[in-house]
Amino acid sequence: MPTDKARRQQLRQEHRPENIARRLQQPPEPRRLSDLVLGAIDGCITTFAIVCGAYGAGFPSSVVVVMGIANLIADGFSMAVSNYEAVGAEQHFFESARRTEEQHIELVPEGEREEIRQIFAAKGFRGESLELIVNTVTSDRRLWVDTMLQEEYGLSRVFPNAFASAWWTFIAFVVVGLIPLTPFLFSGLTQTQEFVGSALLAGVVFIAIGLVKGVVNRTARLRSAFRTFLLGGGAAALAFCVGYLLRQAFNF
Asked: How many separate domains does the chain show?
């Protein structure tokens, strides 16, 4: 870990005028972490929940494999499509809001200027400074619209690629979701050994995902790992209980 002195020196270097200018000129890139984490957690939970439910119900290993892989592909595709549609809907809303603001500026420019004035007055600007900001923003139509979208709607001009979001969600869902099924793909293990192996692998996956989230988001790693482990473990325990109760109720 870098010392405070080294970290301070690094920050000073990053905040030199030329480095700031270079950084601001680069368009911000949408983060893929949320897509990967969402797909990985849901994939592992979905598969391990099937494992727990089938084991609790007393189903044979072949049923676990068939149900697990079928649900993995189907649910992964469904989740990818949902993510694609969600990103697309957000982009459509952004474009609709942009058209609305452009129309308002065209029809009632003074009213829109007043909105800009009140927005920056709420930030603490007064007098000549406030009027200078209002005149600067409203002199550039694109800046004017972008400012209204950000301040009034809370919208950003940067969107993830809908196809890429769907693709990475699907890949993370399937790849990570396969891990709890791997013990059932090996012959020579008893069903109890398969279940225990699946549980251990799922636990490792949940902890690993939590640690990655903690590192990337710069939050407490152990707390993040523990929360993710509880989330996955809770869903699996619920599935096991449902399977066991149904087995007892219907004498599977």
From this structure: 1
Question: Is the torsion defined by CA of 186, 188, 192, 193 positive or negative?
Answer: negative
* pLDDT for 131: 94
Alpha-helical regions (H) of the chain: 4-14, 17-25, 33-57, 61-107, 109-121, 127-138, 141-152, 162-178, 191-217, 221-250
Q: Enumerate residues 6+ apart whose C-beta is below 8 A from 41.
A: 176, 206, 209, 228, 231, 232
d(CA 44, CA 169) in angstroms, rounded, equals: 12
Amino acid at 114: E
Per-residue pLDDT tens over the stretch 61-83: 889 899 999 999 999 999 899 88
- Candidates 213, 250, 206, 245; CA nearest to 52 is 245
Inter-residue contact 116 to 147 (CB < 8 Å)? yes
CB-based contacts of 19, cutoff 8 Å, min separation 6: 13
Q: Domain of residue 117: give its range.
A: 34-236
What letter does residue 181 receive in the DSSP assignment? Answer: G
pTM: 0.73
Answer yes or no: are the C-beta atoms of 160 and 87 closer than 8 Å.
yes
Crossing angle for the helix pair 127-138 and 141-152, to the nearest 10 degrees: 110
Specify the residue for token string 């399937």: 174
